Amino acid sequence: MGFTSKQFKFLYIHEIENAEQLQKYQTVQEQRIEDLTGNRKKLYTERDKTNEQAEIIQQISKINDTLKICRADVRMCKAIFADANRVKEKYNQAQKLQTQAMKHEKQSRTKEVVDNELKRRSR
After folding, report:
1. How distant, in Å, are the alpha carbons of 47, 83, 85 from that of 91?
2. CA 54 – CA 47 distance, rounded (Å)
3. Residue 120 vs residue 76, higher pLDDT
4. Do 64 and 40 contact (CB within 8 A), yes or no?
5. Helix and strand numbers, DSSP H then E, in the chain
6. Do the Cβ atoms of 36 and 61 come closer than 8 Å?
7. pLDDT category, 99, cuts 50, 70, 90?
8. What angle do CA 11, 16, 18 make, to 5 degrees?
9. For the segment 19-70, what is each residue's pLDDT rounded down to a tens digit?
């Protein structure tokens, strides 16, 4: 699956329809990363002080798995923002080229009409 398809799938799954929603989702995930990292740090400290390491290690592992997903989501949000700006630039360039082409076509038609009129008069 192409990267753009992954971006659309990401937006669809998370029901994100505009830039504000995407920014909010990214902010929530970044806050979640911060919270989980703090919790994990506490567990590391607790693990070093207790004998029940297996349970704590399991909790740390779950947090690491969740962090991996959250970080991937934040990277995807950033990539979508970057691609959106690039697409917007390309769109603006295409609009500019289209406008220039239309002006050129209009000028060509005007010149053609004038030339035809001059030929008609010279007969």
Report:
1. 54, 12, 10
2. 9
3. 76
4. yes
5. 3, 0
6. no
7. confident
8. 115
9. 899 999 999 999 999 999 999 999 999 888 887 788 999 999 999 999 999 9
